[in-house]
Write a structure and sequence with these properties.
Layout: E1 4-8, E2 15-20, H1 27-31, E3 39-45, H2 46-62, E4 66-72, H3 81-93, E5 101-106, H4 108-120, E6 126-131, H5 134-140, E7 145-150, E8 153-160, E9 165-169, H6 178-195, H7 197-212, H8 215-235, H9 250-259, H10 268-285, H11 292-303, H12 320-327, E10 340-343, E11 349-352, H13 357-369
Parallel strand pairs: 2-9, 3-4, 3-5, 5-6, 6-9
Antiparallel strand pairs: 1-2, 7-8, 10-11
Bound molecules: glycine.
């Protein structure tokens, strides 16, 4: 059934993203050609380890690859200096050498932490991403952003370190809770909204069947998302320009995540979806895109059963000025000027530093008033 490969042509750092069902069972055979000696170290979390570590271990053993694993607690709290230190010290104790490979088995937290550990261990060892969440398959496992969180904010400490291989096994998505799957879908919808109107229309037609579990549609959605991400990363690996497009909805999202204490009141992908709807609303109010576009975005997200509006976020939120203060912490702020991803239409996003504060405040105030 529907297997595909997206090549990420980054010269000496080029790699493949393999997408399809059953890849976990083939991981050993696919990783073996990368190895200088038949030995790997696996970083994972307790939830994922219980579900998927036995299958990975079996496939490594079938390929004659010795392995050991460190399992960390699940959740965003693991993306910390302390857990990074624990992971690196463990890799050293396991005698992982310069030519060895670290495997990241898990969602975005494990992928980011393991990638950063690999980036700094002995000044850099290779790593393989085996993403187990939809969000990690379509976004965080591809493109080489690695890191941990700081007290001052998310993802403020890190390095660009590209994986040597990504194995996106569509079958593992079956173990995701619906809420987690839909949160990942927020990033999938983002790709259509930022750069491919045809893909967004495809999602409007196929999103419900995909969410219900159709593996071919899931594989196709992951393939198209990864394809688009790879194209952008190849144009701008270290985010000097175009890569910021991947942050459509994210400045709003980061402010909302901070406002909700990074708790399960709002998952990251949910915040991305709400943020995309707000970015389109602001774009329409500024006369950049058609008035119908934000309604179409919101209709699709809410039709999928996703959080779409500020009204869908439980508990108190700051007022519009409070949210704008939180948005000002964004990494894209340059010389104190907020830079946002806005859109001239569905599939036509662009980066701008020209965001009238009053218009932004009005969009936020109206969205808060509707709660
Ligand atoms: N998740 C955004 C990026 O990789 O650039």
């Amino acid at each position: 059934m529907s297997r595909s490969t997206v090549h990420v042509p980054l010269g000496a750092r080029a790699y493949d993203v393999e997408i399809g069902p059953g890849l976990l069972d083939e991981a050993g055979a696919r990783i073996a050609p990368l190895l200088g000696r038949p030995r790997v170290a696996i970083l994972t979390d307790d939830t994922v380890a219980a579900l998927h570590l036995p299958a990975l271990a079996r496939s490594l053993e079938a390929a004659g690859i010795a392995h050991s694993a460190l399992s960390l607690p699940p959740g965003e709290g693991t993306k910390s200096w302390a857990r990074l230190g624990e992971a690196v010290e463990w890799l050293l104790a396991e005698r992982i050498e310069r030519r060895d490979v670290v495997i990241a088995l898990g969602g975005g937290v494990i992928g980011d932490l393991a990638g950063f550990a690999a980036a700094i261990l002995r000044r850099g060892v290779r790593f393989v991403q085996v993403p187990t969440s939809l969000l990690a398959q379509v976004d965080s496992s591809v493109g080489g952003k690695t890191g941990v969180n700081a007290a001052a904010g998310k993802n403020l400490i890190g390095a660009f370190h590209q994986p040597s291989l990504v194995l996106a096994d569509i079958s593992v998505l079956e173990t995701l809770a619906r809420r987690d799957f839909l949160a990942g879908y927020g990033e999938v919808a983002k790709y259509g909204l930022l750069g491919d109107a045809t893909f967004f229309a495809w999602l409007e037609s196929n999103g419900p069947a995909l969410a219900a579990g159709d593996p071919s549609l899931r594989a196709e959605a992951v393939r198209r998302s990864v394809r688009m991400k790879a194209d952008i990363v190849v144009r701008d690996e270290t985010e000097q320009g175009d890569r910021a497009l991947l942050n459509l909805g994210h400045t709003f999202c980061h402010a909302l995540e901070a406002a909700t204490g990074y708790s399960d009141r709002l998952l990251h992908g949910e915040g991305v979806a709400v943020g995309c709807a707000l970015a389109f609303e602001l774009s329409a109010r500024l006369g950049l895109c058609a008035q119908e576009d934000p309604s179409r975005v919101r209709a699709h997200l809410s039709g999928m059963g996703m959080k779409t509006d500020l009204a869908d976020i439980p508990g108190p939120l700051p007022d519009a000025d409070g949210l704008m203060d939180l948005m000002a912490q964004d990494k894209k702020v340059r010389d104190g000027q907020l830079r946002l991803i806005l859109a001239r239409g569905i599939g036509a996003a662009f980066v701008t530093g020209d965001v009238p504060r009053e218009a932004l405040r009005d969009v936020l105030a109206d969205a808060l008033a509707a709660r």
